[in-house]
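Box 3.1. Reading complex inputs
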Amino acid sequence: MLELRGVETFYGTIQALFGMTLECAEGEVTTLIGRNGMGKTTTVGSILGTVPSRAGEIRFGGETVSGLPAYEVAQRGIGLVPEGRQVFPNLSVRENLVATAANYSDSDDPWTLERVLDFFPRLGERLDNQGSQLSGGEQQMLAIGRALMLNPRLLILDEATEGLAPLIRQEIWRRLEQLKSGGLTILLIDKNIDEFAHIADRHYIVEKGQVVWHGESESLLGDSSLKSRYLGI
Amino acid sequence: MKAWLPQTWSGRIYALLLLSLALAPFVLDWMKQPFYLDLLTRALIFAIAVISLNLILGYGGMVSLGHAAYIGIGAYCVGIPSYYDYYNGWLHLALALGVGGGFALITGAISLRTKGVYFIMITMAFSQMAFFLFVSMEEYGADDGLVIYSRSEFPQWISLDSAFGLYYWIFAVLLLALFFIHRLVHAHFGRVIVGSKFNEERMMALGFNTYRYRLACYVLSAMLCSVAGMLLGNFAGFISPDMMSWARSGELIFMVIIGGVGTLFGPLIGTMVFVLLEEILSAITVYWHLIFGIMLVALVLYGKGGIHGWLSLLDRGGGGRG
């Protein structure tokens, strides 16, 4: 569904991605892992077009999307749950969910406010609270709910569980598992590899702006030297 | 408490303000104070302009230092046709909306490609271009300005000829502007604008061409400000390029800040306070600019949220729900 081939991205004159190559297959959970500063979020920015790539190709659903403005990439069906959650602080939970809703995947059974509230009942209890009045976990649920309200074909989660309590993290993983079983394609960027390995199908380890290893969960979990060398765990 | 009454202290104060403005002409007439009716009329016109500026500055995060250009454009859309004996009010209104909107579309399309201090400077530059264009137009009085001998002519029931009639039509436009802004910012369009102010990149990643939304917002704001200019031309009976100077644009920004940025009634109360303070202080001392300046600096430093912010403290302190 999503393919990156030899993507090179710069911040001014500083190169951040050196021939990034990865693939997300339809209905699978793919992860992008690595230490801080290795280019994970830049990869997400390049896919979305917020940090445009200078070389290589990004294809989504069989079409080239590299070079398109961010809003056109999103309209093709890529939903992002950004690092730091970035819910709109002055909008209520309801407004955060409804204001940007769309059906970019032309789904026959689209995500609606009611469906999102069924999926995250906590949000239903805070519907009229402003985004800034929510706890970190609730903000994360809201950020995921907001992305689902776009009815994306691919959901990207950038550091979705960063700074959250273990119980909340478990809740998030359970919800992602449900989304996967519903057929949604997911690209996950996170550090808690041991917690989400069971829902992931394929992993890519990023080091200094390029993929240095990719494979399945069994291979990654079974190779402790790989984890210590590239992930520092 | 009746359900239709405002439920918060700030709401009650704003309702009282609107009621006072509605009754003011009768009270001032009874007190035989026509000067203060003129002062209030001028304040209401500026309030409309400030409400329009607040749409882009407060809700959209676009700090324009050239908004006064649209006051001038609106005023000249009355002055120039009147110079040729065209007094039809609908023509004046259509010209103000069309020319103001058109100028905003062209300048906004360029300005909105910049951000932050560059946006401030480029909006000021366009406003100064308009200023010097009218300064150079000797046919229309250049920097001496142009006298308007007769007000815009509408059907009999919208007569602007009497001070009372003009005041109440301006008041009606103000109420319409408040209603329009309220509906706009609570609609899908307004949510995208507010969201873009906080995080434009995020809004784009959600699939919105924020540039187009911001441009539409900029044009709507300019059109509303041009209507304020049209009313000012009718009220003052005299127009000059000074109406669109960058210093006037700065005053409009101050009025927004005093009242409360990004709030519905903040611009109205900010304008009232600004205009009344200007009047009161200038009656006390010739050095009123100094006192006024110190008060404004103190307000910006210590009055976060402006007057609306202070009134909101009343809501949190009890006495009202909200």
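In summary: Chain B is about 75% helix and 0% strand.
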